[in-house]
Records
---
Amino acid sequence: MESIGSRIKAARESKGISIEQAQKDTRISGRILSAIEAGRAHEMISGPVYIKSFIKKYADYLGLDGKSLAESFAVEKPEFKDQISVLNKDNKWSKPAVGIKFPFKKLVFAAIAVAVIFFAVKLAGLGVSKAVAFFKSRPKVEKKSVAVVKPKPAIKPAQAPAIQVPKGENLVLSLKTRADVYLKLRSDGSVIFDGILKKNSSKRWEAKESFEISTSKADALSVDLNGSPVTTLGKGAVKGLRLPK
């Protein structure tokens, strides 16, 4: 008698359909389709119910009587009846060995019950007063103090004295750096520079009314306004230092 797999394979080949095309059309893995054709579906699929389902879908796709072929699978493979399969270390489905289940949960509950009884007897032997003393003598758990991190104070905008400039003349800022420093410079409210100035750089800018300096290292800058040195930049980071007329 011709096997189910042989009939399915012959039908596929007669239609000129490849396993890859069948996989795409049926959305069944090509490995499972090949196993069905080779009569080895039971090695990849757990339980006859799933195998029958794949056989029916594959056979119907090829124009065969899928229902009839799926039903005949139980006759062809009787050992699947009432079988529960598991996946072994070789990635094959096999029937697990019948053994005695280890009563893990029962043992856990029994151990808890024994522990409760043990402590109850011990407390009864100590007596009420001894039991109270016993619990009071246990070391107290010290509460860990949580260190409060104070936020760093925000950098306040610095103020420089006004520079006396003759009417009609612009404010001229000359700047030199003694180290690499970040600088953001505004002229009359508009940003004209925002970046890193290299060590020993020299720059010159003009403004009508005022400059505003923000820098990461004020003590690395030498600043002149219209030829007059500005000595109030401070040290470290400075934000929003205004240099007006």
---
Amino acid sequence: MSQYYSGKRAKNVFDPASKEPFLLSRSKLDSFLNCRRCFYLDRRLGVAQPPGYPFSLNSAVDALLKKEFDIHRTEKSPHPLFATYGIDALPFQHEKMQEWRDARRGVQYLHEPSNFLVSGAIDDIWVNPQGELHVVDYKATSKNGEVNIDADWQIGYKRQMEIYQWLFRKNGFQVSNVGYFVYVNAHTDRKAFDGKLEFDVKIIPYEGSDVWIESALLEARKTLEADTLPEANMDCDFCLYRKSVQDALAPFQKKE
């Protein structure tokens, strides 16, 4: 049973009086940008949003892509797709690669002005001849037509890439503004399943900018330190749901 439905509070809850660094994952910073009230409920009050269902097929694709690129990492050879997309790079070899991929650790950096220990788990890193690192993120879907990162909801993908770029820069690496999404799209137009899925693989470059991150961290800290609940965000599905529940229950509460 999930922590939400079991009634348990989140373990990593912010204490304004504590001087210890507070662990803030990449996804939680994105949560702050999406809705300050939900972020406050989660990290300050310990009431998280209901968890989403695990995407097992996406996880399988992620694992297989890592194995595929790791073969070329070991051989110090470019993936064949690099020639297709004109990418002059190799999979980056580093002793911390598995640590950086581990969701419980990831790439970490203590941002002293906010006292947040910021972390994020990457999918892959490539390196070009100039020694610059390219952050790489794997995505999987099944849709008609070409995949892209142009939809409004994909702003989270872009922020994810930019936070990773920022984390590596803060860890002393030279990082290119250009990152890559390895986007795989499963075919649904085959005559039969035949026990297998077939995918198109597309590499999409994205030029990121991390200039917003420092101010976002300071604003997130300010939000968590406040003793007042942020206003509901009417663009947030969770805020709208909570309001709808409150409105529906109001007549019954008046009768009590």
